[in-house]
Amino acid sequence: MKKDLLFTPGPVNLAANVRTAIGKKDICHREVEFDHLLSSIETKLLQVFNINSDNYRAVVITGSGTAANESILSSVVGDQHILVLSNGEFGERLNNISNIHNKNTHHLSFPWGESFDFKKIEAYLTQHRIDVVAMVHHETCSGMLNSLEDMGALTKKYGATFVVDCVSSAGAEIIDMEKCNIAFISSSSSKAIGSYPGLSFVIGKTAAFEKLKDLPAKTMYLNLYTFYSFICKYSQTPNTPAVHLFYALEQALSNILNKGVDNYYADLKNKANILRQGILDLGLKFLIEQKNMCSILTTVCVPLNINVSVLRKELRDRSIIIYEGKGCFKGKVFQVGNIGELSLYEIDYFLTSLKEILNDFVHIRNNNLSAVKEIYINDEFRIEDDMVTVSL
User: Fold this and answer.
1) Could you say which of 87, 130, 152, 344 would form a disulfide bridge with 181 (CB–CB 3.0 to 4.6 Å)?
2) Are 95 and 124 in contact (CB under 8 A)?
3) Is the model more confident about 366 or about 311?
4) How many C-beta atoms surround the C-beta of residue 44 within 10 A?
5) Are 289 and 273 in contact (CB under 8 A)?
6) CA 183 to chain centre
């Protein structure tokens, strides 16, 4: 079977030993073998994030990253007031989740693809009672990496509990929970961690977990204190877990630790830099400045003479999978990830393929302008006298 190259922010191409791990022997989740497996995963998670196990715990949930986010948002607020910050699709998703569970949900929305305005945020904190603040670290819809340190300083100043969606940044960026005053982070198995989809996890301060004991439960399956209680008492999960996905997650974490966390991060940054320079060399531009990007994803502006869906299909025909833009970015950008088992050779193959496909678009324009005038973007036909083209 021909391999698809997943140049996406997740799911990703997996290491061979992660694929093998999922085929390990069947075990019962209420037996000692699973106790040891879950304990090993928790230990490795805390090691990957360089977190002191005396002050923090990690729980694993069978469900995607959204399950971990909903577990946090339904469990930590109670009747208090929560402020959700958003500058993209996933921040808005946090707000939607919070509105389901928390009657005192506040929302500060900023334009997609723009950094948070911390002066406006601080002004809001001075004018309103806010007990909890939630935000997304890496806003995948644009590729924007939001500042944990700046927001952490504000939450500390105003005495708010700080919770962060790190679904696509965990395992790729340094996340200093202590320095940034973070009570809980969420993430998933299928992005920079490099395992199968289907598991998520929450890492939190032990003291913050303990405070959940006195809050009323708003969900059954996703009650965060229940997960914490079970791992503390039994080294188990409260519900039947996807056991074989736990095997794979443990192996993926072992791969990171065996390589060295710093080396793992450096490798991702190196691949991102090579990918980005190659894209710039094709004359393309990025949606946001490189200094604001996470090291796993690049969002590329599309020239007017190119239809993203056609570009994506042409790449797919070469076994290369990329993302299209969403929401206000639909038809205007495409996104390229560099996580998972993607070699430098495969990155070069992507860049070569992209150049050839873009060259075909330019060739069409130069030889048949009428055909170019019928290329549509954002579901509209557009006629441009001076269409933006790529320089090859």
Assistant:
1) 152
2) no
3) 311
4) 19
5) no
6) 19
Evaluate whether the domain defined by 16-259 bears CATH number 3.40.570.10. Answer: no
**Number of Cβ within a 10 Å radius of residue 37:** 21
φ, ψ at 11 (rounded to 5°)? -65, 170
Q: Is the pLDDT of residue 281 over 90?
A: yes
Q: What is the pLDDT, as a whole number, of residue 392? A: 40
The model's pTM: 0.91
Mean pLDDT of the chain: 92
Averaged pLDDT, 164-189: 97
Q: Are 253 and 21 in contact (CB under 8 A)?
A: no
DSSP assignments along 220-234, one per residue: STT-HHHHHHHHHHH
pLDDT in tens, 252-270: 999 999 999 999 999 999 9
- Residues 162-176 have a mean pLDDT of 97
80 is in an annotated binding site: no
Q: Which long-range contacts (CB under 8 A, 24 or more apart) does 277-284 make?
A: 278/347, 278/348, 278/351, 279/336, 279/351, 279/354, 282/351, 282/354, 282/355, 282/358, 282/390, 282/391, 282/392, 283/390, 283/391, 283/392, 284/390
What per-residue confidence (pLDDT) applies to 107? 98
CA gap 277, 379 in Å, rounded: 30
Tokens of 348: 């070069």
> Is the pLDDT score of 82 beyond 90?
yes
The CA dihedral of 196, 200, 206, 208, to the nearest 10 degrees, is 160
Tell me where in the chain the CATH 3.90.1150.10 domain(s) lie: 261-367
Structure tokens belonging to residue 366: 């130069």
CA distance between the termini of the chain:
33
d(CA 186, CA 328): 26
Residue keyed to tokens 């090859």: 392
Q: What is the pLDDT of residues 209-241, one digit of tens each?
A: 999 999 999 999 999 999 999 999 999 999 999
Q: Where in the chain is the domain with CATH 3.40.640.10?
A: 16-259
- What is the dihedral sign for C-alpha 127, 129, 132, 134? negative
Q: Please give the pLDDT value at position 29.
A: 94
Separation between Cα atoms, residue 56 and residue 366, nearest integer Å: 61
Residues 6+ apart with CB under 8 A from 44: 250, 253, 254, 257
Residues belonging to the chain: 392
- Could you give the CA distance from residue 206 to residue 213 in angstroms, rounded to a whole number? 12
